[in-house]
Amino acid sequence: MSNSEPRVVVTGMGVLAPNGHGLEEFGRALRDGVSGIAFHQQLADLNFACQVGGVPDDVEAIQDRYLTGEELFAMNANMVYAAIATVDAWTDAGLDLPGPDSAEPDWDTGGIIGTGIGGIDTIAETLAPRTQAGRVKRLGSTMVEQIMSSGNSARIAGKLGLGNQVSTNSSACNTGTEAVIQGYHRIRDGLARRMLAGGSEGHSHYIWAGFDAMRVLNRTKNDDPEGASRPMSASAAGFVPGSGAGVLMLEDLDSARERGARIYAEVIGCALNCGGHRQGGSMTAPNPVSVQRCLGAALDMAGISGEEVDAVNGHLTATFADPHEVHNWAHALGREPRDMPWIQSTKSLIGHGLGAAGGLECVAAVLELHEGFVHGSLNCEDLHPELEDYADRIPHESVEAPDLSIIAKASFGFGDVNGCVIFRKFD
Question: Which of 21, 40, 173, 384 is catalytic?
Fold first, then answer.
């Protein structure tokens, strides 16, 4: 690689979301405002207050196209979701799948595929009860593979023959966005030519139970699943849990050009920080100063002003924090409410994918740049009173935006952690 800092571009994407598998289906769902939220009888049977959630459809019908029976035997839903989205990102980037007998790893390519909670369903359903019953010998030889968080990336490394950094990050709801930022820096530092980056989360009542107990999930719309995820709404009553996976193939621009690869967008800036549980921040609430500093640092790295941002794909979960987040964006961008970029919440369509959220939403943002549209946010016709001044900048239906050039994506997670990545349409 050259001694100059490489430019980092997106050359492939994979997505498995509650409202679509693959870029074509997912992109169409975004444009058409198709919700992936559904009622789940199991949650009702278990006395959950929130009985709706976002789960990808018909995964069992497609997983055999991606994974062998032997591989699936040692994988839980979280790992399967990650593998499907990552293989799709690989092939979408124009790369051939290596055969199982290929001799040498791809030393130039790595992967950071994060998860928030990971294989807790395997622990709860198999590891814990068999161990407590004294049946350790019945756990099988693949138990560690199934429960270790790094099983996400480790399985993919073997599938694709990755020879560069392979790891699984975890930073709550900031996980997927953080993975993209870490992958970006790996390439920018000249340590890799390509990095698969994103996040995944399985659908599991064991994951969702803790949030239900916290009373942060929507419990008012069990009879209206598609109306349950209500970011920026006056009647928002908590987030809707989701699942799935979203993965980007990040690549050194020189490498992409050498391969003749299609380029979706360029990563021009990013930032990570923590609010230190100070200035109003806590384990569950963001420090507004740190949020604004994170957004500002990403703009500074990109070398752009806030006036140049055309759209914001926010974290926006349908909790009390939504109005504060929008105000933080306005402060960081230095813009008045009626002069703001388009503001949107992908969670209104798919729920909150936790560790997968940032990956899913980065795919959505890049698709929008590439195809020139801004998807609408569902269920916020009754806009929160504190956001009424922003009403003209919050579309409820998709807006065609052929001149869309720069979109900022941010995620904020438990632990007071923040991440922001800025994508520019590649020209």
Answer: 173
